[in-house]
Amino acid sequence: MGTAESTKRKQKSANPSTAQKEPNSHTSMADQKDNIDDFKVQTAKHPNLGSAPLRPHSEQSKDRMSKRLSTESNGTSDGGVGSSTPVEVTALEESFRRFAIHGDTRATGKDLHGKNWSKLCKDCGVIDGKNITLTDVDIVFSKVKKKSCRTITYEEFRAALAELARKKYKEKTGEEAEAEVFKLIEGKTPVIAGVTRAVASPTVSRLTDPTKFTGSHKERFDDTGRGKGKAGRVDVVDTSGYVSGYKHRGTYEKKLNKLA
C-alpha cells in the first residue's frame, strides 16, 4: 500500500501543469457558453443580424447624406413628426436646405445660420448693392430670429425674404415682390469657393475692344476687329513700287486686262 501511495504522489508532482489546467478549462468552457447565450439573445432580438451583409463605408456615408435632405415630413414641411406620408418639398425649401447644410457636416437642414444666410442672398442675387446691401441682410436676419437663437427656421426664412422683397422691389405690391425674390432663390445651390464665373465688367470690355486701341496696338487689328497676325506685329516692306498714299493701286492692271 505504501508503495502505491508513493507512486501516486510522484505522478502528481511530475505533472503539476495538468492539475492546474483542469480548472482553467472548466472556466473557458463556461465563458464560451455565456457568449453563445448572449449571441442567441441578440439573434432573437434581430433575426436578420446574421443574414444581412456588411455594407461598405462609402455607401453608409451616402445614406447619411441622403437622410439629411430627406423629404419625409419630419422637419419644416407640413405633416409633423412621425407622419408616414411624404410631403412634397418646394424648390424654395430645397434651396433653403442646401444652403443650410453648406459647409457644416453636422447640420440637419432645418435651420440656417447667419453666414449661410448672407451667402444665399449674395449667390442668388438678392443683394444688388443699391436697394439691398449686406448690412440690410444682416439687420433683417437679426430682426426675424429669436433672441436666444443664432439660426432661423424655414418660416423665419420666408419672413426675412418678404422683408427684403418689399425693400428691393418698391414699385411692386407685397405679393409680387415676394414672388420675384422667390424666383431668384428657387432651385439655386451654393457657389463653391474656387470656381470662377464669367462676369460682365465694363473695365474688361474696354480693354478687350480693339476699336479703342491706340498706337502700335491698333495696327495689329483690321477694321472688323480681327487680328492681322504677323503683318500686325512685323513691319513688312512694300516692294510693289506704289507710294504709301496712292489710292488707285491695281487700276492700271485692270485696264490692260480689258484691252487684251
In short:
The chain has 260 residues and is mainly α. The protein is built from 10 helices and 2 strands.
Mean pLDDT: 74
Oligomer: single chain
Provide the structure class.
mainly alpha
What profile does the largest beta sheet have?
A: 2 strands, antiparallel
Pattern of helices and strands? HHHHEHHEHHHH
How helical, in percent, are the residues? 40-55%
InterPro entries: EF-hand-dom_pair, TPP/p25
Pfam families: p25-alpha
Biased composition (Polar residues): 13-30
GO molecular function: tubulin binding
List keywords for this structure.
260 residues; mainly alpha; 2 strands; 2% strand; elongated; Tubulin polymerization-promoting protein; tubulin binding; TPP/p25; EF-hand-dom_pair
Describe this structure in words.
It is a single chain. This protein is mainly alpha-helical and 260 residues long. It is 49% helix and 2% strand. The protein is built from ten helices and two strands. It has a two-stranded antiparallel sheet. Helix 5 packs across helix 6, helix 6 packs across helix 7 and helix 7 packs across helix 8. The longest helix is centred in the N-terminal third of the chain and has 30 residues, at 16-45. The radius of gyration is 41 Å and the shape is elongated.
Question: What order do the helices and strands come in, and which of them pair?
Answer:
Elements: H1 2-14, H2 16-45, H3 57-68, H4 91-100, E1 111-113, H5 114-123, H6 134-144, E2 151-153, H7 154-168, H8 174-185, H9 202-207, H10 251-259
Antiparallel strand pairs: 1-2
GO biological process, one term: positive regulation of protein polymerization
Main location: cytoplasm
Family: Belongs to the TPPP family.
